[in-house]
Each structure stands twice: as C-alpha cells, then as structure tokens.
Amino acid sequence: MTNTGKKTQATPAKAAPAAGKTAKAPEAKKAKPAGSAFAKPLQPSKELAAVVGSDPLPRTEVVSKVWHYIKKHKLQNEANKREILADDKLAAVFGKSKVTMFEMNKFLAQHLK
Predict the structure, then answer these.
(1) Rg of the Cα trace of the chain?
(2) CA-wise closest residue to 112 among 69, 64, 67, 56
(3) Residues of the chain with pLDDT under 50
(4) Domain limits of the chain?
(5) Which of 30, 90, 94, 100 is most buried per CB count within 10 Å?
(6) pTM for this entry
(7) Which fold has domain 38-109?
C-alpha cells in the first residue's frame, strides 16, 4: 500500500512544475517580438499597397501577403517554381516582368519605409 501512496505523491509533483512552465511561456513570448526589427510595422509604397493594403505591416507579414497574392493569381512559372511572372500590380513593384523568389525581397525592401 505504500507504493500506491508514492505514486499519488509523485504525480502531483510532476504536474505542478509543468503547469508553472506553461503559465510563464506566454509572458516571455510577448516581450521578444518587441525588439525584433522584422516585427516593426513599415508603411508600404503606393505600388505595394495595391497588393498588400495601405496599413503599416511588419516585413514578415508583407512577404506573406505577397506570396498569398502570387499563389492566388497563379503567378509562379509552372516550369520553374522559383520564378515569379509579374502581373501589372507586381510589375509596378518589381520594375520588370520576371523575378526569382530570391530577388523578390530586394524589390519589396525598396517599397517599405
């Protein structure tokens, strides 16, 4: 019968620290993004606002919205998925009709202030 008592005592002891860890985790996450340069909202240019909206957005959100636009309008080259075939709105941002996914961030940076 003493074994049953030990199991009962051990189980709450393990559960208590786990509950304490989960309670502290959200507080730590809230403090971290505030210092990140990627989390700073930036104002898109008029050309970029036609794709992502005119509200200030973090750089990461801008890239995400541009990719959503590319996929929604099927602007990736089927033969080479790394290549983006710009429509009129994206051509105004990129300055040319084709860019690679690696070049895209360079052009987006020019349209964020």
Answers:
(1) 24
(2) 56
(3) 28-29, 31
(4) 2-31, 38-109
(5) 90
(6) 0.67
(7) MDM2 (1.10.245)
